Amino acid sequence: MQITTRQLGEATIIDVTGDIDLASSPQMRVVLLRELKANRVPRLALNLKAVKYMDSSGVASLVEGLKLSRQIGNRLILYGLAPALRDVLRLSHLLKMFEVYDSEEEALAL
Q1: From CA 87, how far away is CA 71, in angstroms rounded?
Q2: How large is the C-alpha radius of gyration of the chain?
Q3: Nearest Cα to 75, choosing from 51, 103, 109?
Q4: In this predicted structure, what is the pLDDT of residue 110?
Q5: Pairing verdict, β 43-50 and 75-79
Q6: Does the first or last residue of the chain, that is N or C, have fewer Cβ atoms within 10 Å of its Cβ?
Q7: What is the predicted pLDDT for the residue at 33?
Q8: 73: alpha, beta or left? (left if phi > 0; alpha if psi -120 to 50)
Q9: How many CB atoms neighbour CB 106 within 10 A?
Q10: Sequence-distant contacts of 20-27: CB under 8 A, at least 24 apart
């Protein structure tokens, strides 16, 4: 898995490429929590267009990020979910908990 971070206006975008599984989810968790906690970004968008698979450890990292973002009053946005990722979140009843958009433009428009 590869993770890059970029700034676009007041939003920070984390681009994730590759599978998010037990081996790679700790790396994603570190980046996600660093941006929310240490850098205190007001809006954090996760670009998941290049992620085809996510297991429960990846979902747990997203939930932890969502919980922290709500505690500190920031927004965590997901976009570009492949159908398999959308199904994982839907089946775990978490899809409606996240702000989810199809594209970067939609995610950053609000």
Answers
A1: 26
A2: 12
A3: 109
A4: 66
A5: parallel
A6: C
A7: 94
A8: left
A9: 13
A10: 20/51, 20/53, 20/54, 20/55, 20/57, 20/58, 20/61, 21/53, 21/54, 21/55, 21/57, 21/58, 22/55, 22/57, 24/58, 25/55, 25/57, 25/58, 25/60, 25/61, 26/61, 27/1, 27/3
